[in-house]
Request: fold
Amino acid sequence: MPTLNRHLKVPEGPLTQMETYIQSKYRNIVGGVQFPSVTCRPDSSYEVGRAARKVNDPSREALARLSHLVRYLNDNRKKRLKYSRNGTSQEYLRQLSPVTTWVGKPQEPEPVDVDHAVGLVDANFAPADEPLRRSTSGTVFMYKGNTISWKSKLQYLTAGSTHDAELIAASLAADEASWLHQLINELHSIFYRNRENPERPVKLHGDNLAACFTANNPTTSSRSRHLDVRFFKIRDCIAAKKLVFAHIDGKFNVADFFTKPHGRNLFDQFMAHLGMESPVANRDT
Reply:
């Protein structure tokens, strides 16, 4: 959602009749908007996750945010993800080229394979409005230029730096990339039995160079040795050639869409990159 909800004016005094109703139905309303946020409405994913963290004790600001979220979904209920043979996001994915991968040393830039699975990951380090200062991870995966998976999730521990936050987010994204790699290979063996399956790795992209270097190099330093072992399993996925983790310019990282609110222009730009659009009205009706 646009940053209209970042600077909401929270009224003072007793709760209004509408606020009292939302407070009494808060858990039900959040449950109602969760399903579309994970199936067909990535534009609401961040705000729904944020609202879900307040179900036990919603503040007045949380009531205002949820009210704004419901109004946004109602006003934009016809927005949808578009899927096509030549995905609507292929043009955006081509902008990611060239990218730089790190295995011991920088390698030559290579183009993004828009006909295969491509992932992007980002993290919003220690937002000031988060009580525990925990970072928010954002991931999105596309296949043949179509958005097929996305997630906005609060990290379950407090990262000490942007490097830590990005590495934690990348490790969690590696789980999804590993599953997609397996799923795509299984589907290929079912529908194309007579064709050779090259088992191409999923290409994951992040905009933090230090995290990219740490993930691609099996070394330990003072920057990463304090992190739990589970956050280095991305190295196993890279070694098994299930994924490739590459660095891109932050301005091209659409995963930032799932980590924090954005202004109207950037919000609409990310929506277009994800392949979301409003259906064209039928002129005959």
